[in-house]
Amino acid sequence: MQKSTEPDPRSDGVEKYADVNWDELGFSFTPTDFMCMMRCCGGENFSQGALVPFRNIELSPCSTVLQYGQGLIEGLKAYRKEDDGSILLFRPEENALRMKMGAERMCMQSPSVEQFVDAVKQTILANKRWIPPPGKGALYLRPTLMGSSSVLGLRAATEYTFLVFASPVGNYQKAGTGLNLVVEEKFHRAIPGGTGDIKAVVNYSPTIKAAGAARAKGFSDVLFLDSLTGKYIEEVSGCNIFMLKGNILSTPATNGNILPGITRKSIIELAKDFGYQVEERDIPVEDVFDANEVFCTGTAVGVTPVASITYQDKRFEYRTGEETVSFKLHVALTGIQSGSIEDKKGWTVKI
Ligand code: COI
C-alpha cells in the first residue's frame, strides 16, 4: 500500500479521537481523513492500492457506473475494543468474496480477497481517530467497485476503480421500540434472474420511492414481496428479515432474489448454537401474521426488532424488548463484534 504525502493521522502525537459528538451519532455520512483507491485497466490485475486524502473523485460522465449502473458496494464495521483499545473487524473476507461474486455477475474485474481486506485494514488504520469509543458505534467501511472507463454502447468497462472510504456511525434507526413495516404490493426489489442476490448499486435506488411513501404514512420501511407471485416475503429495503414462531426461526431462502447477508449468515449460526431450529425457505406473507417475533438483520441495521407489520390495512404486532430472542441474538453478535464476548468462531480480525 502506497502512502499519501499528506500528514498521517496514524503517526504519534495525533489525538486519539476526532472532534465528533459521539453521543449523537446516527447512520449518516461524516467524511474522514483518508480513503484507499486502486485501479485496473484492460484486463490487468488491480494495481497496488494507495491511501489518499478523502476527496471527491474524477469520473467520466460516460463511465459505465454512471450510465449503466455497473457498480457494487459492500458494508462492514470496525469496532474499538474496550480493554486494550485494539480494533476489530468482522468477517471481512466474506465481504471480499461477495464482491467477487457480484463482479462476476456484472462482468466487472474485482480486487483479490487479499487486496480487498488489505485496503479495508489500511483505511481503518489511516482513520483510526474516527473509530467511535467503545459502546458508541463503529467505523463503517464502504468498499465500492465501479466501471470507470467511458463506454457509450452497452457493454462492460475496460477500466475499474476500487475504493474504500469510512464514516463513523451509530444506530441505523433511532433507538426505540422497533420498526413498523408495511408490506409493499406495487413495487419489487428483485426479479428472478436479476441482481437481487448481489450488492449491486442498482438494487438500492429502486427501493427509495416505496420506502419514502411508507415513511410519509408513518411507517419505518417496507417489506417487499417476490415479484413472480406476490405471495412470499423477501427483504426490507436494505436488510434481511427473520421471524420466530415457538422454537423455529425462519428466513427467506437465498433463491437468487435475496442478498446473502453476512449478518444473516452469522445470526443463523448463533441461533442454532442457542438451540433454535432455523429454516431457510419460501415464507408466504400470511406466515408472519402470527409470528412471536420478527427482526431485521444487516451490517447497517445490526439486529433490529420489528414491532409491527401492516398488510392490506391489517396490523400485526410482535414482541420487542430485552426479553426477546432477537435481543439475545443482538447482544451475542455485538458482543463478538466489539470484543466484549470471546470470539470462539474466529469471525473477528484484530488490526
Ligand atoms: C449495509 O447494511 O451495510 C448496507 O449496505 C445497506 C444499506 C442500505 C445501508
From TrEMBL:
Uppermost EC category: transferase
PROSITE patterns: AA_TRANSFER_CLASS_4 (PS00770)
SUPFAM superfamilies referenced in this protein's UniProt entry, alphabetically: D-aminoacid aminotransferase-like PLP-dependent enzymes
Keywords carried by this UniProt record: Amino-acid biosynthesis, Aminotransferase, Branched-chain amino acid biosynthesis, Pyridoxal phosphate, Transferase
This enzyme's EC code(s): 2.6.1.42
Transmembrane feature ranges: none
Cofactor(s) required, per the database record: pyridoxal 5'-phosphate
Reactions catalysed, as given in the entry: L-valine + 2-oxoglutarate = 3-methyl-2-oxobutanoate + L-glutamate; L-leucine + 2-oxoglutarate = 4-methyl-2-oxopentanoate + L-glutamate; L-isoleucine + 2-oxoglutarate = (S)-3-methyl-2-oxopentanoate + L-glutamate
Organism domain of life: Eukaryota
Record-linked InterPro entries: Aminotrans_IV, Aminotrans_IV_CS, Aminotransferase-like, B_amino_transII, BCAT-like_C, BCAT-like_N, BCAT_family
GO biological process: amino acid biosynthetic process; branched-chain amino acid biosynthetic process
Homology family: Belongs to the class-IV pyridoxal-phosphate-dependent aminotransferase family.
Protein name: Branched-chain-amino-acid aminotransferase
Lineage: Eukaryota, Viridiplantae, Streptophyta, Embryophyta, Tracheophyta
